[in-house]
Amino acid sequence: MDEIKKVNELYFDKTTENILKELEKTRCEFWNLDRQSANFLNTLIKINNSKNVLEIGTSNGYSGIWILKALAETKGKLTTIEFWEKRQSCARKNFELCAPDVKVEPKIGSAIVVLEDILDEINKGKREKFDFVFIDANKKEYISYFNLIDKMLVKNGIILADNILSHYEKVQDYVNTLFENENYQSQILDLGAGMMLSRRN
Ligand SMILES: C[S@@+](CC[C@H](N)C(=O)[O-])C[C@H]1O[C@@H](n2cnc3c(N)ncnc32)[C@H](O)[C@@H]1O
Q: Is the pTM of this model over 0.85?
């Protein structure tokens, strides 16, 4: 397992690896993904050839860097939401250093309000639907995020939600709703803090 981790530590260019390593030192303060979960997120985007990714919960950009590295290959774009300006501006700097050529649209604001605005733009034909959504913000709001995301996800689109096992009580309604929804095929993965992977049929 240590050998496998060593391979993952040397995954990207030196600048990116150094920034990821620095961010990993303050992981608990900024509630970042663990490296294995981030690697899974990156791989999944590439497997699905996702090009229009939405992230809810930017923080300082740790998971965003992994998303952008995948989008560099699929030639896609990231839209990422955070209500804490300081964190979002830190994330922007990290994105610029690690993936300067990949399109990012950082959105500052409360996730539900921003999602409502995005949905409005989609309904008016000003913006395309997403093919991949990563949920990692307020656990109690996961179900509200889903009710909006459901209207902005393409057929065969993916939703990956973090902290499903670590915060099970808070996300229980999200989990039940997804499992009961016949439009989605879902699975909980015992990876990191527990992730729920859902694919829209
Ligand atoms: C778990 S952290 C995200 C970590 C990030 N995905 C990573 O792995 O690097 C959750 C982030 O969501 C933000 N957040 C929480 N509730 C939010 C809300 N309702 N609207 C916007 N951002 C929110 C927090 O400020 C925090 O930075």
A: yes
Q: CA neighbours within 13 Å on the CB side: how many for 45?
A: 30
59 lines ligand 1 (CB under 6 A): yes
CA distance 73 to 53: 13
Residues in the chain: 201
**In CATH, what number is assigned to the domain containing residue 120?**
3.40.50.150
Q: What is the pLDDT of residues 33-84, one digit of tens each?
A: 999 999 999 999 999 999 999 999 999 999 999 999 999 999 999 999 999 9
Residue 120 belongs to domain spanning: 2-200
Residue 139, both tokens? 């656990």
The total number of structural domains that make up the chain: 1
Does ligand 1 come within 6 angstroms of the Cβ of 57?
Answer: yes
Sequence-distant (6+) residues with CB within 8 A of 116 are: 148
Token pair recorded at residue 173 = 């309604």
The rounded distance, in Å, linking the Cα atoms of 156 and 132 is 9
- Atom number of ligand 1 nearest to Cα 37: 8
